[in-house]
Design goal:
single chain, mainly alpha, two-stranded antiparallel ribbon, about 80% helix, about 5% strand
């Protein structure tokens, strides 16, 4: 009985973390559009598009990013982690190809958006962990 309770608690914690990641990705996209402009990254000015795009980016980060990080580990190590900027941009670019209402004009714009989303993620995580 106690084992099932531990499993359910772990599952609930995982869902909460994913939901938080989803919200942070959506917030990061919204901020990236505000900073970069709608001519470089656009979402059609709909809140639902930002929320779905955040969900897609969160899913890509959960399922695709670990594989890409493992495959690019030599480049990450040689660049002292700076290659992670490219990996984050690639995740945004993949998400924009999977969910076409999120339109990113180029890979370089995706890299900038990935940096902004990563910064927002870092700031939100720092605020939450400080409590």
């Amino acid at each position: 009985m106690a084992y099932n309770k531990k499993v359910m608690n772990a599952f609930n914690l995982t869902l909460i973390r994913f939901f938080l990641r989803w919200v942070v990705c959506s917030l990061g996209i919204w901020i990236a559009v505000g900073l970069l402009g709608t001519d470089k990254i656009s979402y059609g000015s709909k809140l639902s598009t930002i929320l779905i795009a955040g969900f897609v980016i969160a899913l890509v980060n959960v399922f695709v990013k670990p594989l890409v990080v493992i495959l690019s580990l030599p480049a990450i190590l040689l660049s002292l982690g700076l290659f992670m900027i490219i990996v984050n941009g690639l995740m945004v670019f993949i998400a924009s190809k999977l969910y076409t209402p999120l339109h990113v004009t180029s890979f370089w714009v995706a890299i900038l958006a990935g940096m902004i989303i990563g910064l927002v993620n870092y700031l939100v995580t720092a605020i939450i962990e400080e409590r």
